[in-house]
Predict the 3D structure of the following.
Amino acid sequence: MSVTIKDVAKAAGTSVSTVSKVLNGHYSISQQTADRVRQVMRELNYYPSASAQSFARGATRAVTVLADLGPDAAFQNPHMFEIIAGLEQTLRARGYRLMLRGVDAAGAYETAEDIISRKSADGLAIHVSVLTHPLSALLTKTQFPHIVLGMPNFESQLCWIDNNNVYSGTVAASFLLSQGYGCIAFLGGQYYDLGSAHRLQGLKEGLQTRGYTLDDQYVRLGQSTRADGYAMTDRLLDEKQLPDAIVCANNYIALGCVAAIQERGMDIPEDVGVLTFDDYPFSRFTEPQLTVVDIDVRDLGIRAGKHLVEIIRHPTLQVQTNVTASIIIERQSTRRRG
Amino acid sequence: MSVTIKDVAKAAGTSVSTVSKVLNGHYSISQQTADRVRQVMRELNYYPSASAQSFARGATRAVTVLADLGPDAAFQNPHMFEIIAGLEQTLRARGYRLMLRGVDAAGAYETAEDIISRKSADGLAIHVSVLTHPLSALLTKTQFPHIVLGMPNFESQLCWIDNNNVYSGTVAASFLLSQGYGCIAFLGGQYYDLGSAHRLQGLKEGLQTRGYTLDDQYVRLGQSTRADGYAMTDRLLDEKQLPDAIVCANNYIALGCVAAIQERGMDIPEDVGVLTFDDYPFSRFTEPQLTVVDIDVRDLGIRAGKHLVEIIRHPTLQVQTNVTASIIIERQSTRRRG
DNA sequence: CTGAAAGCGCTAACAT
DNA sequence: ATGTTAGCGCTTTCAG
C-alpha cells in the first residue's frame, strides 16, 4: 500500500490529527512542528488520498460542467469551450477540479439530480443551451451552488452570467460614429436570436444617444448563415441610398456580406465599412480583415468560476446577473472617413 | 443528513451488504430481494454517495485529461476539444467521468504525479502537446493507465493514439489521380511539423505506387499560416511548368494558396485543383469550397476512451499504436479532368 | 499547541 | 442467498 497519514504521524512522532492540520494549514500548529511534518512528508513521498479527503470532508472540491457535447460541438461552438477553459483556469487556481459532462436538454435534469444527490460535485456550471424549466426548479429547490453560462431565456431565480450584448451594440455605434460613419445598416438573426437582438438594440441606443438613428429599412434579419448574409447584403445594396457602414450580428453573416459587396466591385472600407462581433479565427481570413467588437469569452469563463467558488463557499450569496465588457478590435474593414 | 445505505437496509429488512450488492449488481442476490431493495431505494430517494463509493472502492471511476488550455485554445485548436468531447462520450457510456485539467508542458509532470499519487483519477489522457520525457518516464515507471492523444515525437513505451497522416496522404494521392490530375504540388509546414511531414510522405508513397512522382521543386515548406501559404503558392506559380493540383498540408496554408491563385486570375478547379486536410468549418468559407481529406476527430476521441477504459480494467494490456482512417470530402476545389 | 477518538458511507472478505 | 464486520484514510470535535 501507499504511505498514509499514519505513517507520516509515526515517522514525525506526532498524532495523525496534527499531520492533518498541517495538511490543511490549520493555524494552531507551531511553525516548528509544521516544518518537521512537512519534511517527513517529503521524505516518505506522502500524498494525501483525494478520495479519502473528499469523503471525510463531505466535499469534493470539484465542479461539474453540464454542456451539449454532441458531434462537431467543438467546431460549431468553440466559444463554449473557451468559456469552459476559462472556468477551469479559475477553478484550478482556487483548488477546484473541473468535470465535464455531456448532456442534452432532455437529460440535463436527471444528470443534475444525480450529481446533486450523490454529491459528486460541490457545484454545477450549466451551459444555457441545456437549461430547462424543471432543471431550473431543481436548482432553486435544492439551493445547490450553480451558475448558468449564458442568459436563460425565461424568468428564474437562477444565478447566471453572460456578456452584455446590448453594451456591445453601443460600442459598435460609438466606434463607427467616431470614425465618421453616419448612415449605418444592421444585418442580424431572427427575433429569437437574443444575441443578435440585443446587439441591434444596443446599436440603436448608441446611435440615438448621439443624435443618429437606425432606419428600419437598414435593418435586415435572416438566418445566421453566410448565404443569408450574402442575400441580405445584396438586397440592401439595391437601395437607392446606400449605408456607409454595415454592422453584422455575427461572423457568418459578415462573410456573406463581404462577398456580396466585393462581388459588386465595391471596396471595403472605401465604399462601405463592415463591422461584426466576436473575434473568431476566420474574422482574419477575409480580405480585408474585419473590424470586430469582441467579447472576452475567456474572461466570461474566468468570472463564472470566481462566482461559482464564491457561491460554494457562501451558499447564501445571491448573484443574479453578471456581464462582461466588450472591446473593439480595429482592422481593415473600417476606416476613418472625412 | 441524507439517507444512507443503512437506512435502506433497515427499511428493506436486510443487511447493508445486501444493499451494496444490489447496488453493484452482484450475482448472488435473488431477484426478489433485489426488487424489494430497489423499491425501498426509490421510496427513500436514496442515492449512494459518490465520495464514499470512490473511497471504499479505492477507485474514482474518473479519468483526467491533461491538455494545454491556454488563452484562445478553443479557437485555435477546436480539434483537441472535439477529441475531448469524444472521449467524454465514451467514458460516460462506460460509467466513467471526465475531469479536465489545464497544464503546460512545464507543469504536466508535477500535475500527473499529483494525480497518480493522490489517486484522484483512475486514468490519464494526455494531449501530446504537453507530453515530455520526464512525464513519459513517470507513466512508464508507475504503469499508470494512460493514453496519449496524438503521436509522441520521441520513442517511448507509452500507449498513444493518432490518426494516420501517412494514410491520409495516400488517400489524397489516389483521389487526385483518380480525378485525372497528374502533376501534383505539396505545400506544407516545416520538418518538425510531423503531421505535415507524414501527409507529404503518404502523398509521395501514394503517387509512387501508381507510377507517379512528386518532384522536389513542387514541394514547398513554410509556416502553417495563411501568409506563408500565399507566398509559397505565389512562388510556385512562377515556375514555367505549373502543377495541375496543389495539396495543402492544412487549412491555413490552403487559405493563402486559394487567395494567391485567384489573385493571379486563375480559376479553381479549372486551372489548378486544390485539396487540403481536415474539415474545419472554414474549409467551406472559401469560394470554391475546398475538397478535403478529413479525419474523424470525434472518432479518435471515442477510440481513445475505449482503449483507456480497457487499460484501466486490464492494466496488463499494452496498446501501443492506434490509428483511425481518413475519408475524402469532395467539394468544388477539385474536378474530374480529361 | 497537540492528541485521542469518533465517525464519514460504502465495499468486500468471510462466515453462515 | 444473505449477514457480519473490518477496514478504506482522512477530518474534526473535544480534551488536555
User: Anything to note?
Assistant: The radius of gyration of chain B is 26 Å. Chain B touches chain A through 51 residues (CB under 8 Å). The CA atoms of residues 27 and 284 of chain B lie 54 Å apart. Chain B has three domains: 5-57, 62-163+297-324, 165-295+328-334.
